[in-house]
Amino acid sequence: MNEGLIPNRYAKALYAYANEAGKAAEVYDATLRLSRAFEAEARLARAVENPFLPFDDKRSLLLVAAGAVKNGCIDKFFGLVFSHRRESLLHEMALAYGKKYRSENNIAQVEIATAAALPAAEMKKIKDSVQSHLKGHNLDYTERVDASLIGGFTVKVNGEVLDASVRNDIRKLRLKLLSNK
Hints:
The protein contains eight helices and four strands.
């Protein structure tokens, strides 16, 4: 079976349940923390899938990773996932929930990468520019420093990239010089 189909179905069900309970935003925050925990610590997935680790220990580990409370929406969701033996897909389910939530709430993910940390006023100018081009969207910003850009910045909005970096200018210049041979 398509492994993308199962996480999407679970995410859709979790969204419907959390939305009905008025906890969709809270669950969104928890799934963001959970997906980041899976990405940051590969051993989390191995622990969750370990058949010798008791369910209560796995549940506690996941609740801490998600920053969630016992007996909340996400805790009940974990119980459902484990009862159907789908724990190996929890990371994908968390990512799919985030995508569903953003789609339903008209939220665009914006990642701003700069060559060096920028003063708040400069970062605000970039954010204001992005906001003016994406009228009608709520924006979820993440910022990071990427020294490989050499200078300038990149803005990624829902997977589309605007590259205003020195690295990109050098790459373009190199290609132009190579094509003139």
